[in-house]
Each structure stands twice: as C-alpha cells, then as structure tokens.
Automatic annotation (TrEMBL):
It holds the Pfam family DUF6597. It comes from Rugamonas aquatica. The lineage of its organism: Bacteria, Pseudomonadati, Pseudomonadota, Betaproteobacteria, Burkholderiales. Residues 193-267 form the HTH araC/xylS-type domain. InterPro entries: DUF6597, HTH_AraC. This is Helix-turn-helix domain-containing protein. GO terms for molecular function: DNA-binding transcription factor activity; sequence-specific DNA binding. It comes from the Bacteria.
Length: 282
C-alpha cells in the first residue's frame, strides 16, 4: 500500500487470490482537504491496456480529453482499454474507488467483449450485467474503503476461482507474455495470424501494442530514481528499454502519456496534483 498524496490517494495491491485478475486498487479522496485551485482538479491518465471500474462514492468527473464527451452522472463507470491519454475534471471534492483488471480476466469474469470497449466507457451495471450492478450498489453503500474492498473481494474471489483459465498466474510484470503463451497453447496448429487475432479478442489490442505499453511503463519504472535525482540520461534509458534510439522512446512516450519523457519527469518533480496517478504508479 502506498500513501504518498496530500489528497489521500492510495495504491493497494490485491490479495494473492486475485493477483492474476486485478492489477491494483486505487482509492482517492479530496473531501477531507478540498483542492482550491481548479487546475489541481484535473486528472491526467495515460493510455492503458487494462479495463477498470471507478466508483464515485462522492462527487463526479467530467471527461475533457478526448473532447466532445457528454457530462455524465454515472456513479460506477466501466472503462475499457485506452489507446490514448485521457483527462477528466472534478467540479468539486471527490471520493473514489478504482479497480484495474487485466483485460483477459475481465472477459473471463463477465463475458464482456473487450475489443468492443476500447476507448469507450459506460455504466458498469449496464455493461456487465445485473450481478455486477448489485455489487456496485453494495460498494457505493459501504461505509469506508475497507468495507468497500471487502464487498468487492467477496464478489470477485469465487467468480475468479471458477472462471480463471487453467494455469493463470500472471501478475503485473509478465501478464502480456503469459497471455501470448496461453493463447498459443490453446491454439496449436493455428497460424501466427490466428493467434494474434485471439490475443486481440481477449485483450482488445494487438500483441505489439500491448508489448509497447508494457515496455514504456517498465522503462519509466527502471529510470524513476534517476530522473527524480536529476541525473537521468534518456538515451541510456532508451537503450536499456530496447528502443532503437532516444527519438523512438520519445515518440512512444508521447503516444501513451501525451508528453515526452523529459516533460513527464518535470511534471512529476513539480508535484502537479493533476498527475497524481503517475506518481503513485511509479
């Protein structure tokens, strides 16, 4: 568990029984210490291969990037994999619980067609069905974060035990390759293109895109101490990450986050509140 934000933001590791299903829980509250500067109430999110559900226990969010999205008052929002950065705005204080799912696990649990939800979001109960809607209502009614997580885990654990593919044990560091091995193992005798189609059907994005997202994330993890200490050499980071050159690394970073690695490091060192998810994630 990480508790590093003035706004009471925490990254919580799921229990072992759900480690191959849930990437992380995130809780965040600005209720106790409201953010008075409107600029601090923006929330910047990178592209991600994961699906998520966010419960708005208190408050609401408006999508500002990509532009043109209607305002919604949905209290339990299902979000599919995102191929581009996303930004939201909180008009006032909020209290949220977010759970991030591996995409193939989300499909196994609910039957949702993950590719159909790339770059989309909607009410979780509408997308996932009445059992999930009832669970969401219970989460929203729970008195605190511990009780909310207890409701969530009581719902997910038996379903994941019944739904998980044989041998599913991948956690954060190796889930992409584990998915590839699993698909290949169940698709013996099929061609490479067939296997690639099966990966996209489970995860919503092609294997090469998943590997690019994972590589960029790992490169930032590996370089975290260097850029916080002000001694990072981005060409060295690019080389360690397997990029052809620094420009290649910068292009992929911009695609995923909207910023170059140097810009992102500067933003994180400035402790810009709107980039809170980057800080707790790294």
């Amino acid at each position: 568990m990480s508790d590093t934000e003035p706004s009471l933001t925490r990254l919580i590791v799921p229990p072992f029984a759900l480690a191959s299903c849930v990437r992380a829980y995130i809780t965040r509250s600005t209720v106790e210490a409201p953010l008075t500067d409107p600029a601090d109430r923006f929330n910047h999110f990178p592209a991600t291969p994961h699906c998520s559900i966010t419960w708005f226990i208190e408050g609401e969010a408006e999508v500002v990037e990509p532009p043109g999205m209607p305002k919604t008052e949905i209290r339990a929002v299902f979000v599919g994999p995102q191929t581009r950065p996303m930004a939201t705005y909180n008009p006032g204080p909020v209290r949220i619980l977010m759970v991030m799912f591996y995409p193939q696990a989300m499909h196994a649990l609910s039957g949702v067609d993950v590719p159909a939800w790339v770059n989309r979001w909607d009410d979780a109960g509408t997308v996932l069905g009445p059992e999930w809607a009832a669970m969401s209502d219970a989460v929203l009614a729970a008195p605190d974060d511990a009780a909310r997580l207890a409701v969530l885990e009581a719902f997910l654990t038996p379903r994941w035990q019944a739904a998980r593919p044989g041998g599913a044990g991948a956690t954060a560091g190796d889930w992409v390759r584990h998915l590839a091995w699993q698909v290949a193992d169940t698709a013996l005798g099929r061609g490479v293109r067939s296997i690639e189609r099966h990966i996209k059907a489970r995860a919503g994005q092609p294997m090469r895109k998943l590997l690019r997202l994972q590589r960029a994330e790992q490169s930032f993890f590996d370089a975290r101490e260097e850029f916080l200490a002000g001694r990072v050499v981005w060409s060295d980071v690019a080389a360690r990450g397997g990029y052809s050159d620094q420009a290649h690394f910068c292009r992929e970073a911009r695609e995923i986050t909207g910023h170059s690695p140097h810009e992102l490091a500067r933003i994180m060192k400035s402790e810009d509140e709107s980039y809170w998810i980057y800080r707790i994630w790294t």
